[in-house]
UniProtKB/TrEMBL annotation:
Its EC number is 2.7.2.4. Keywords: Amino-acid biosynthesis, ATP-binding, Diaminopimelate biosynthesis, Kinase, Lysine biosynthesis, Nucleotide-binding, Transferase. Belongs to the aspartokinase family. Residues 271-347, 353-426 form the ACT domain. Pathway: Amino-acid biosynthesis; L-methionine biosynthesis via de novo pathway; L-homoserine from L-aspartate: step 1/3; Amino-acid biosynthesis; L-lysine biosynthesis via DAP pathway; (S)-tetrahydrodipicolinate from L-aspartate: step 1/4; Amino-acid biosynthesis; L-threonine biosynthesis; L-threonine from L-aspartate: step 1/5. The keyword Nucleus does not apply. This is Aspartokinase. It comes from Actinotalea soli. InterPro entries: AceGlu_kinase-like_sf (IPR036393), ACT-like_dom_sf (IPR045865), ACT_Aspartokinase (IPR054352), ACT_dom (IPR002912), AKii-LysC-BS (IPR041740), Asp/Glu/Uridylate_kinase (IPR001048), Asp_kin_monofn (IPR005260), Asp_kinase (IPR001341).
Length: 426
């Protein structure tokens, strides 16, 4: 008998019917003899709807109140799911993040889990019940304030509980059959991966593949929790995220494929400062202002200065949701920074190619740029790491860019189209 943590995303519990369907799966797992802890997200697009509602009230909702509001979504789904399981004759009890002992720091809206004090959950398991835990939320240690972990945070709750309870596996149930070589909503011919390493999954998640939240992959890698991403709508085996080598009989250790997949991100914006003095300390001053505003940046491009003027342009990308904060801070500091003009552009997209095999294979970037050229897509910014190449394009060309790169690297599946079982893609 083992212990499994199962996480069900919003599209898996979107309505009463879906909740009953998921409850059946959970009851079956429990009846098969395993201890089962379930982490659940808010129903369907509830979180987005609550955010819209808050924005209708005020343009800048206080982050503490926002967290209390958003955690309500998971309270609804957790209690309904517990009722549905009990209805099938299996004991189940639901718990908020606070009740489940999820302790976080005090950064509202993107709190980090510091500890999981799972005593209460263990008692429930010892009594033979299923424990249902509200995802995406916790409580601060000293002030008892309710926090949320950032969008997609239920994935992190699940991995943290799996690590805290020393579970055998953390199953992430969603609306597609696993991790694919690209988002199946954009590339229907994307191929399901049987297995992906933590390192590659980290870069895929950091590059926008929201099938797993970035922090959950970081947490899983650190604690070596194996993740199984799979569909709650089918019985198919999904994708295993692990560093364990394949040990299927007869196969030995297979060489890793060069490319894991293509990820995309529509959530960023670009700021360009025109006419910055090309002297030591300029970049430091600009990014000190951005950092002081609490904004994380992603790519940076700085041109060589025009010889006559000694002035240059600096461009960088950042989460579009931080756009107002960053531009306000930079405008305020314009006199000190000395730039002539600030341009803000949120009609950009980022496409990234990820694969551990890149380290030892030349020509990957050239092939990627060639694919974009053939598709008539202009490249606005480029950044690379050892296992990733990322490119910024116009937002309305992003889907075409993803498809062009996906097929240029031969990632298309030969066995038909990927199934998207639910969700609005929001
Ligand atoms: P959940 O509500 O279950 O947490 P999410 O919407 O957060 O689901 O994540 C699942 C979605 O992630 C899929 O429906 C798919 O559109 C998207 N996605 C993006 N990139 C990938 C990828 N490489 N493989 C699978 N799904 C992906
Ligand atoms: N409900 C939260 C969100 O939509 C958390 C999650 O689904 O993982 O981001
Ligand atoms: Mg998610």
């Amino acid at each position: 008998m083992g212990l499994i943590v199962q996480k069900y995303g919003g599209s898996s519990v979107a309505d009463a019917q879906s909740i009953k369907r998921v409850a059946k799966r959970i009851a079956e797992a429990r009846r098969a003899g395993d201890d089962v802890v379930v982490v659940v997200s808010a129903m369907g697009d509830t979180t987005d709807e609550l955010i819209d509602l808050a924005n209708d009230i005020t343009p800048l909702p206080p982050s503490r109140e926002m967290d209390i509001l958003l955690t309500a979504g998971e309270r609804i789904s957790m209690s309904l799911l517990a009722m549905a399981i009990a209805n099938l004759g299996v004991d189940a009890q639901s718990f908020t993040g606070q009740q489940a002992g999820v302790i976080t720091d005090d950064v509202h809206g993107r709190a980090r889990i510091l500890d999981v004090k799972a005593t209460r959950i263990r008692e429930v398991l010892d009594a033979g019940s299923v424990a249902i835990v509200a995802g995406f939320q916790g409580v601060t240690e000293h002030t008892n304030d309710v926090t949320t972990l950032g969008r997609g945070g239920s994935d992190t709750t699940a991995v943290a509980l799996a690590a805290g309870l020393d579970a055998d596996v953390c199953e992430i149930y969603t609306d597609v059959d696993g991790v694919f070589t690209a988002d199946p909503r954009i590339v229907p011919t994307a191929r399901k991966l049987d297995r992906i390493t933590y390192e590659e999954m980290l870069d895929m998640a950091a590059s926008g593949a929201k099938v797993l939240m970035l922090r959950c992959v970081e947490y899983a890698r650190r604690t070596q929790v194996p993740i199984h991403v799979r569909s709650s709508f089918s019985g198919h085996t999904g994708t295993l995220v692990t560093d364990e080598p394949l040990d299927r009989e007869g196969e030995g250790q297979m060489e890793q494929p060069i490319i894991a997949g293509v990820a995309h991100d529509r959530s960023e914006a670009k700021i360009t400062l025109i006419g910055v003095a090309d002297v030591p300390g300029s970049a430091a001053r600009v990014f000190e202002v951005v950092a002081a505003a609490g904004v994380n940046i992603d790519m940076i491009v700085q041109n060589v200065s025009a010889a006559q003027t000694g002035l240059t342009d600096i461009s960088f990308t950042l989460p579009a949701e931080d756009g107002k904060k960053a531009t306000a801070a930079l405008r305020e500091a314009q006199e000190t920074l000395g730039h002539a003009e600030l341009q803000y552009d949120d009609a950009i997209g980022k496409v990234s190619l990820v694969g551990a095999g890149m380290k030892s294979h030349p020509g990957i970037s050239a092939k990627l740029f060639g694919a974009l050229r053939d598709a008539g897509i202009n490249i606005e910014m480029i950044s690379t790491s050892e296992i990733r190449v990322s490119v910024v394009t116009r937002a309305d060309q992003l889907d075409d860019a993803v498809r062009a790169i996906h097929s240029a690297f031969g990632l298309d599946s030969a066995d038909g189209e990927a199934v998207v079982y639910g969700g609005s893609g929001r």
